[in-house]
Write a structure and sequence with these properties.
Largest sheet: 6 strands, antiparallel
Strand content: 5-15%
Number of strands: 17
Helix content: 40-55%
Structural class: alpha+beta
Shape: globular
Number of helices: 29
């Protein structure tokens, strides 16, 4: 796990030097405290930078940027290639000579020369963001892994194409302007993050998951998707044809268990100590249980809890799992004071606002791992999305079945009249009616019912908090590259969701509602919010997070399992629980889901709430910008008085205004 960066001069202007590359790398020193490197081409038109967190092949020969023997192909790489030894063996048979003992980075160089960029990526099993410069053909490739576990950002301005693992590296160059992207701000209110390829910075973009971008020496961009979370790639219909229900359940559970076990085993590839973040829930406990079967020493486990609001703690369950599997267990307890002391670093390391307060406990448990000498951790992200583990999934599925289909069958004028009537009856003190009005509004506009498991500002809320609707948006660079921006220019975030799902339905007609919801989650919330928080926060402590539930072989397999099996009998995670039966005790498998959270509602009623209110209301975004100051002030007061729980909206606004103060206002 590392930090990558680079520049390509495509106009022949100011020649590159190592100083700007070094500055880009130094801004991400936390991603790679074990070493740094820069390479500049002889004509000084292209330069690559790297910060190294040594995990696989700790020798100096594995340092980056790395080239082939004749220095015609160069790479800077962030991530892990779990099948690199197999690929190395194939390449050696094809005549390639390696400098390193077992560096996975070197496989990328030789793999590109042997198979080309498409052939290389199709063979990779891992998480990665990397750039390859082909000197013979004068072209640069930028690649992000299938699921989006590793981020990579880019901009084209002032005659340069710039890229990096973090936006702050791009911003080290004074020629890159700092401004707000209004459309991204608008969609952030809905999705709690700017959806790819947008970021909160105008003209700075992120490469979406599962994409390759090619940059020519003249600066022309061309991007294409090489993988997506869709049905049709995991299970051959012939394998399940004619199976009884019992045999089919066994087929599904065996397939899940084997792929999860394989995913966990792959992610133990490391030359440094590794462990597990343990909450005591199904997902993290499965990591511990399976890993403990593969190791001849105790698993290192790490848990975070709260000193001041113990009702959110899962320490008892984590301790039970730790004792059952005889782990080397570590705990850390935090409170509001710890959170307040961390906020400045949080805003800095997020780069752009990620309105998920899980970032706070995630930082402290990551620091606990680092302070304990552990560099690599396995985490449970991706399980709830694949196996329908969220309570909101059940709610949306029920709503779709009992109401949505019938409502959408009504004539358009009838739906519009119902939505108008409901909207006229709403007010800030009727959250239940707000939800009804917004859902009816989606139906009236022929939009999707489900926008994501975490949806902050509904349209009815935006109408109150924004001084004016945010419409419009034009991104010539993205259009030229062929990156999908469907619906993102619309002030209604539902247009973006509908555009995405229309494309899915066209390519994969007749899919059940849960499969459609899961595809939505992989494209937006999982890649850009949940996985981004894991990357940004763990790496801020120089710790690498790995996600076995997002092994692409498991994802391909589960995308071909129908809704009826994933929630059989109304049981969330039905198949996963069956697959783990006998591996985890029943009191862990079948206990109610708590979720990894933080007592933000309570903290916002204390000292932090007063500080947050002052910061938000004093921000230029509120004072003379996008937001209605009086409305926000009333929301803070009603939350402080305990009349409403406005924590999600208030935390989202605090993150946004704190980001603006730090990165835009300086």
């Amino acid at each position: 796990m590392c930090g990558i960066a680079g520049l390509l001069n495509f106009t022949g202007g100011r020649p590159l030097d190592g100083d700007i590359l070094r500055a880009m790398g130094d801004s991400m020193a936390h991603r790679g405290p074990d070493g740094d490197g820069q390479w500049v081409s002889k004509d000084r038109r292209i330069g690559l930078a790297h910060r190294r967190l040594s995990i696989v092949d700790l020798s100096n020969s594995a340092a980056q940027p790395m080239s082939d023997m004749d220095e015609t192909v160069w790479v800077t790489f962030n991530g892990e290639i779990y099948n690199h030894l197999v690929l190395r063996g194939e390449l050696k048979k094809a005549g390639h000579r390696f400098r390193t003992d077992h560096s996975d980075t070197e496989v990328l160089v030789h793999g590109y020369k042997e198979w080309g960029i498409e052939g290389l990526i199709s063979r990779l099993d891992g998480m990665f963001a990397f750039a390859i410069w082909d000197d013979a053909n004068k072209r640069l490739f930028l690649v992000r892994d299938r699921i989006g576990i590793k981020p990579v950002y880019f901009t084209r301005a002032g005659g340069y194409f710039r890229f990096a693992s973090e936006i702050k590296a791009i911003l080290t160059d004074a020629e890159v302007p700092r401004a707000v992207e209004p459309s991204a701000l608008n969609h952030y209110l809905s999705f709690m993050v700017a959806p790819a390829p947008l970021t909160m910075f105008k003209d700075i973009f992120k490469l979406p998951a599962g994409h390759i971008m090619e940059i020519g020496s003249s600066g022309v961009l061309s991007a294409r998707r090489y993988w997506d979370a869709v049905p049709g790639n995991g299970i051959d219909a012939a394998e399940t044809k004619g199976l009884s229900d019992a045999a089919l359940e066994d087929f599904y559970t065996t397939g899940i268990r084997d792929r999860l076990e394989g995913g966990i085993e792959k992610r133990m590839m490391s030359d440094v100590p590794f462990g597990v973040f343990l909450s005591g829930g199904i997902d993290s406990s499965a990591n511990v249980a399976m890993m403990s079967q593969m190791m001849d020493r105790p698993v290192d486990t790490f848990t975070v809890g709260f000193k001041d609001h113990t009702h959110l703690n899962e320490l008892e369950y984590a301790d039970r799992v730790a004792k059952k599997f005889n782990t080397n267990h570590h705990e850390v307890l935090i409170d509001e004071g710890d959170m307040l002391g961390y906020l400045g670093d949080l805003v800095h390391h997020q780069d752009e606002p990620l309105a998920d307060w899980v970032c706070v406990p995630l930082y402290f448990v990551s620091k606990l791992a680092k302070d304990s000498g552990v560099i690599v951790v396995q985490v449970g992200e991706g399980s709830d999305e694949q196996f329908s583990g969220y309570n909101s999934y059940a709610m949306y599925l029920q709503l779709h079945r009992q109401f949505w289909r019938a409502f959408k069958a009504l004539p358009g004028p009838a739906r519009q009249a119902a939505a108008f009537m409901a909207n006229t009856m709403t007010c800030p003190h009727t959250p239940r009616l707000d939800r009804i009005a917004d859902i009816l509004g989606r139906g009236a506009k022929n939009q999707e019912l489900f926008w994501g498991a975490a949806h902050a500002y509904w349209n009815v809320h935006k109408d109150r908090v924004l001084r004016h609707p945010i419409n419009g948006g034009s991104w010539p660079v993205l259009e030229e590259a062929g990156l999908d921006t469907g619906g993102l220019e619309d002030g209604d975030s539902g247009a973006a969701v509908s555009a995405m799902m229309a494309a899915f339905d066209s390519a994969h007609p007749g899919q059940d509602e849960l499969t459609r919801m899961i595809h939505n989650e992989f494209r937006v919330r999982l890649a850009e919010l949940l996985l981004m928080r894991v990357d940004k926060i763990t790496m801020s402590t120089s710790v690498e997070g790995r996600v076995p539930f997002l092994d692409h072989a498991l994802v391909d397999f589960t995308m071909d399992i129908p809704q009826a099996w994933k929630v059989k009998g109304g049981e969330p995670k039905y198949l996963l629980k069956k697959a783990l039966s006998g591996i985890l005790p029943d009191d862990i498998l079948y206990r109610p889901k708590m979720g990894f959270g933080a007592p933000m509602a309570e903290w916002l009623r204390g000292d932090f709430g007063r500080q947050a209110k002052s910061a938000v209301l004093g921000s230029p975004l509120v004072k003379d910008g996008y937001f209605d100051r009086d409305h926000i002030s009333r929301r803070f007061k009603s939350h402080h008085d305990g009349r409403q729980d406005n924590a999600l909206h208030l935390w989202l606004l605090f993150n946004l205004t704190a980001w603006h103060d730090h990165w835009i206002e300086g």
